Every structure is written in C-alpha cells, then in structure tokens.
Amino acid sequence: MTAATHSTLFPQVPETADAVLDGLDPEQREVALALTGPVCVLAGAGTGKTRAITHRIAYGVRSGRLQPASVLAVTFTNRAAGEMRGRLRQLGAGGVQARTFHSAALRQLQFFWPKAVGGDLPRLLERKIQLVADAAARCRIRLDRNELRDVTGEIEWAKVTQTVPADYPAVVAKSHRDAPRDPAEISQIYAMYEQLKRDRSVIDFEDVLLLTVGILQDRHDIADQIRSQYQHFVVDEYQDVSPLQQRLLDLWLGDRDNLCVVGDASQTIYSFTGATPDHLLNFRTRHPGATVVKLVRDYRSTPQVVHLANGLLSQARGRAAEHRLELVSQRDPGPDPVYTEYADEPTEAEGTARRIRDLIAAGVPAGEIAVLYRINAQSEVYEQALADAGVPYQLRGAERFFERQEVREAGVALRGAARAGGNDSLLDDAEDLPAQVRAVLSTKGWTPQPPAGSGAVRDRWESLAALVRLAEDFARARSGATLSDLVAELDERAAAQHAPTVQGVTLASLHSAKGLEWDAVFLVGLTEGMMPITYAKTDEQIEEERRLLYVGVTRARLHLTLSWALSRSPGGRASRRPSRFLKGLRPGSGSLGTVASGASGSFERGAAAGRRKPRGPVLCRVCGTTLTEAGAMKLMRCEDCPSDMDEALYERLREWRADQARELGQPAYCVFTDKTLMAIAERVPGSGGELSSISGVGARKLDRFGADVLAICAGEDRVTGLDED
After folding, report:
1. Cα separation of 438 and 447, whole Å?
2. pTM of the predicted model, to two decimals?
3. In this predicted model, what pLDDT tens digit does every residue of 572-602 receive, in sequence order?
C-alpha cells in the first residue's frame, strides 16, 4: 500500500467508515485503528503523519466511536490547524475542533472569564514589543532595536517555562542559557512589563495559557465542564510542546488517558521558545501501556534526499539522536543532491537564481521551488537576484490569505453574482464556472496577464489569480458545479483557513519552512557561523542547528541544492568554510565513519557553476568604503552617500519599463528592479560595456533591452521593439 503525497485537490468524501482507511499503509492504518488509550506516533519527516491522525479522527467519527464535538486536536500554527480542519472536512468529519493551543485556550478563557473572574476579559495585546520598550524606559535601561527584540523573546521564554521575574536570573544560570543582557536587568524589565500590563488592563499571548491554567487549577467545576465536553485529545508536533502547554494539556485530560500524540524528536527546532522533546521522549514512561507506532516510510522525498537526511542524523549526538528514525523512501530514484561552492554571496544568489530559472524553464512550477536560509537578513540578496532573473517570488510570513482585503472583496462579489444567477449581465458570455469567476473578478482587478510592478498591485493580482486557479481546479473535480457551490467551498475554506496556493518561488527561513514541502529546495549560506549559527555554543545548541538543517533537507521532494560562499562580498578574503554538518556527506569532504562511503551528489565550484570570473571588492564611488549590501553594490555607493541621479532620466526609464512589462506580461521588476534603474540613471552609460558593468544588467538583458536603454540615456526615443528571447 502507498500513501500518495499529492492527492486530488477536491477528493470525494469517503462513503463509509471503512473507506476512510483505504490507501493507508500498515503503520498508518494501525494509528487509525488505535482509538482508545494513550497512543504515541513517532513520525519521521514526510511519512504522512497528518494523514494518519486525520484519518484516525475521521474513522472514529464515521464509525460512531467518537463524537465530533468530543474531540479536540491541537497543533502549533494556524496554517497547520487550518490544514487539519480542511482534511477532516474532506473526510466527512467537519465538526471536530482543530485549533492551536492558544486558540483553544483563548476560546475557553473568553467563555469562562465572566464566571471565574467577573467582567470582561482584558484586551489581548497583539504585539508586546512596544510595551517591553516602555518597561525598559521606566527602568531607565536603554535597548537598541535588536536588544529590544531579544529581550522580548526572553520574556516569552520565561513565561512559557513558568519562570517568574524574581526567579529569572537563577533559572538562566542553572540552565546555562545565554541571556541577551544582564539577567538582573532583564528580570527588572520583565517585572515592570508585567506591572504595565496590569495598569493598562491588557494580557499577552502567554497570559492566555497562564490564565487558563490558573482557572482550571482553581475552579474544579469549570475544569469538569471542559472535561465533560472533550473526551479525546490529539496533539500534533508534540516535540514542540512547552512546559506551560503540557501543564494545560494535563489539566484538560484530568485523570483520563484518551490522548494521541504525534512527533519526531529529530525535528525539535524551537527550544528558544521553550519547546522541549522531553515530553515526547518520556511519553512511554508516563504511560507504560501506551500504543507506540513508528512511521518511517517517506512518501515525500526521493531515495537520494532521504539518504542525505539519514546521513545527517547519523552524526547527531544526545538524547534526541538516540531516538532518531531511519527513513525509507517510497519514491522512485531522482537526481543526486548538488553541492555548490561560490566565491561570494552575490555570486551564490545569482547562481541560485539561474538554477531556479532553468528549473522553471524545464517545467517545475515557481510555486514548487523554495530558497531556505538560516536568518531573515539573508533574504535581500536573493530577492534582488530573483528579480534580476525575472523570477516571481513571495516571502513566507505574509498575512493569512482569507484575511486579505482583496480576497474579502472578491468573496462579496462572487456571493452577489451567485445570488443574482442568470440576472447578472456580467455572466452573459461566461460558458462555465471558471469563466464566470474570471468575469466577476475582472471587476476587482484580475486580468489575464499580471500587472507591471512588484508591490501592492501585484500582490492583489496574485490573490485574485489564486482564486481563479481554485475555481478551475474545483470545476475539474466537481462536474456541473455552480457559482453557489464554489462560494460555499470558499466559505468552508475560510472557516478552516485552508488557503489556495499563491504562485511564486518561496523565500523563507528554515524555521518558518517547518511543515512545508516543495519539489525543489535550495539550502543557501551553509557556512560555519551561519550553520551552525555563531551563537550556538553548547552541544545541545549545536545539535539543534543540525536538526534545523535536517528539517531543511527533508522539505525537498525531488531536487535539492546545498550551497555556500567563501566570502561575504566580491573580492573579499576566502576565509569561510562550509558547514561542519556536511563533512562526510558531500563528495570529497573526508570521512566520518561509514557516512562518507555512502556520500552521493555532485560538487561544483562557483566559477564553473556560475560561469563568472572572480570579482574584486566593490567600493563606494563616493567615499571609497567597501560595499557589502546587495542594494549598495548595485548602486556602487553607500545608501546614505549623496546621489547624483538624473531624476528626469529615471522617470523616462520607469515609463519605458512599464511599457515593456505590459508587453511581456511580467511584473516590472522582471525587466529591471528600481535599484538597477537608479544605478543606470546615476551612471548614464554610453555604451554596451558601460551598461553591462551595472549589477542587474546581465548578458540576456543587455541583448534584449540594451539598445532601448542606451537610446533613452542618450536622450533619444526607444529604438527597438521586443527582441525574440
């Protein structure tokens, strides 16, 4: 039996309870049938854990052994909870509650607060960083922006580990935690922060859990009322549970043991937030009679990717490593991982962008490609490189799809058209459901071709285009579906936060990529000091960095590229070394026991891979400072150095770019980015050689747009039309 990674977008609801079990492999089926008592599912990356637990819940509901309202499934992100609700709905178990810990606790707190405390629940603080800043000012402690962020994170850690302000310095010393400031100062800021919250009648997200725990501990009648409603609990990503979340779970359970937990200790990457795999690893000690099922059949990744993932963990140390799962790929063989060494970071970004462009040309959708890095600050150079290569991208972490204004407006328009039916003149010439949707959304800004530009206009179009694609998929899956049927589907998806996919290469940090997957993944910046990160000092911290890389590797289904740069900027000293985690895994990197003998993949050096000659250091043409930031290197000057840009020339170039983008049906940044146009307007090139020396003007763009740009720079009208690409 197999468990397909890609199921139909709109599958038919199984007709019977037994049909829910169809397609599950033996271990997944064992999970689905284990409906009582404590159950622990140890699930490796790509092994279908969400499939197993949603089918378990659905089978219990459809067979009558579980009442939908008696089940509470909790996970850690709104996206994961939305996906779970969507899958349960498709399996005919739509009445089950699937929420994050915070969402479930907030719902209970809002309901029981008047009874337990009286009055209205204090206002929930959306972002605590400003209040932390106010607390630091009250304490007369100066924090810069980075310190403010770090101290805010430290307060969050203290609260989820149930550490009060007075105990914070001692707990930090005992746990050997690296505090971003003097622990005594953080303790003082933390105490003042709590005081300001009380003075202003607000609570933060950690208080939601703390207050719910407090009420359930103090009011046994309320605890009994919650326990009478929820009889069965499912916890996804159990390795990420914090002590506070475990305390809340214990109070929900009471003296019962109808609990199913799912996790993988090798994917514990959030210890900085208080997460610990100890609850998962100790589960069988706490519940000696627990049913334990291991999922190791990897349906996501090829044998080549799985081989690398297993090799990476074979070097791990510590308690989590002792419980690692050896994955077994269920897919056909694919290409070997590619390891590439570049001279500097801009060259690495440009080489990555070229590879991505080649993949897209070979048929890989842009939405099935991701570039993953260790910290968000690394994204800028890749944004620039992708824009220069004409590749659309999206940054992970945008607002939720159904909360976007354009999506809400589109929903209202579609609902109105569905009610009007044949009386809506917009639909007169629309032959099928997708045509009807395109007609309605054309009034909201959708066009057959994307607009020029990369800002809010493009984002709005991408949202509407995602709805059009959803309608096309829905029509293919449901023959004869009407506009009213689609509106109902959108309403259910909005309630479940089950969003359609917005196309574009994903740029994301390794932490934010957890739980996601793509056909092609580029792991970039894999140097010592970045992976592992420089502040990872202890053995435990180093091992968590290894697990973070493991998570990145296992996001890839088919294509996997790992790269690093020997220096930060062009011409810099090649002093960097590739990550220690790759030793014995990449070809020619030495031996680590039996690992190196199984090393596979191709190794390339940047000159061969990037087809670029080594470049010297880039100096500011105004003050002579060595430039390191991508935007500054493009302008050939420091961002704050005076500009001598020809404003009129810049505006002419922008108008020309807009025309080109419309003719090409591409966003404007795929022609030239704003920074490239600024650089052209500042330097006013008079020849192809001068133009090609500007970053962002490669050979392809020089051939295609060079004559026009040089003519505009010379004060002439554009001299050519579009060349064949």
Report:
1. 8
2. 0.70
3. 778 889 999 999 888 776 654 444 345 666 7
